[in-house]
Amino acid sequence: MSMNPRERILAAIRHQPVDRIPTDIWATGEVWEKLYEHFGIAGRTPADQIALYDQIGVDGIFWVWPDYIGPELPVIDGIQYDEWGMGYRMHSYGSGAYKEQVVFPLAQAKSLSDLEAFPWPSPDWYDYDSLRAQAAQYPERAIGCGYTAIFYWHNNLRGLELSMMDPLAEPEMTETIIQRVSDFFTEFHRRCFEALRGVVDITQVTDDFGGQVGLMISPKVFDRFYRKPMQRAMDLAKSFDVFVFHHDDGDCRKLMTRLAEMGVNVLNPIQWRCGDWDLAALKEEFGAQFCFHSAVDNQQTLPFGTPEDVRAEVRMLAQTLGKDRTGFILGPCHNLQPITPIENILALFDEARKVY
């Protein structure tokens, strides 16, 4: 049987047979530029993006987002502000430049009245009618839309240190912030899904609970503050027949039973070098609930290994996470970084075509 990229991605999520291992890719802007240059693709249109994916051998999930039409977003002293009041500045690290958050708009909030006075964004500030035209630019590709990230938004509104202390030191403020964020995301995504009914395949209900070894917060704090609003987002997606994609960096293993119970369909990125993962045991325990996404190591193998190291890892992952020849979408376990050799990227996707 021969499948197009969308059929291949969705079959893996549904745990159905696939003709070959499905693939996806995330990368920094510098890596995209290197890949376009390598293949001699000059433009940066959706058609060029598909041409690049076809050259590399990537099926992909293509993400669309409604155009912002709200109040003008200021740039002050080189800091770009978004509609939440979060401020960002570009910072160069030599091999690459990254947009780093430098303003956390609720960092000075001391009371519920401060939260009440905060200029919360409105779901009215987006053009949802633009979504279908965006999705139409990616025929025969899986379409994703949406990004609910309750814990991450708490981090970005308050700053990481305060948001980590808030559940214990300021539980009422924590609940209020989370409720306001959840209310926004619920209405925003309801409008997205209505505009894309029958077109959108996947949405993110996502967060970064995992650290390099273990969780950043306790399961008890997760249950008390974050589980209910995440479930609300997942239930909304399921009501529109949209699959739930959950991105969770690092060692998030202690949440996996909960995530399975909540209805996560796709678990990303499987950073198996964070902690001590037994991938065969992971597939055995959770392979019926999750389609595993990504997993090719981006801390050691891709940036510092050889092409044969990359190929060997692809084969290992296919034999563990892809053991039953479905329920696995292969790709780098996070954004490919500028220090990653092009040869390693090409080896990843070339080997993917050979393992099934």
Q: Could you list the spans in which at least 5 consecutive residues all have pLDDT below 50?
A: none
Order of helices and strands: HHHEEEEEEHEHEHHHEHEHEHEHHEH
Number of helices: 14
Task: Tell me, briefly, the overall form.
Answer: globular
Total domain count: 1
How widely separated are the two ends? 13 Å
CATH class: Alpha Beta
CATH topology: TIM Barrel
Q: How would you briefly describe this protein structure?
A:
This protein is α/β, with parallel strands linked by helices. It contains 14 helices and 13 strands. The model has no long low-confidence stretch (mean pLDDT 97).
Task: Give a topology summary.
Blueprint: H1 5-13, H2 29-39, H3 46-56, E1 61-64, E2 67-68, E3 75-76, E4 79-81, E5 87-92, E6 97-103, H4 112-117, E7 126-127, H5 131-136, E8 142-148, H6 150-158, H7 160-169, H8 171-195, E9 202-205, H9 219-239, E10 243-247, H10 256-262, E11 266-268, H11 279-286, E12 291-296, H12 301-304, H13 307-320, E13 328-332, H14 342-352
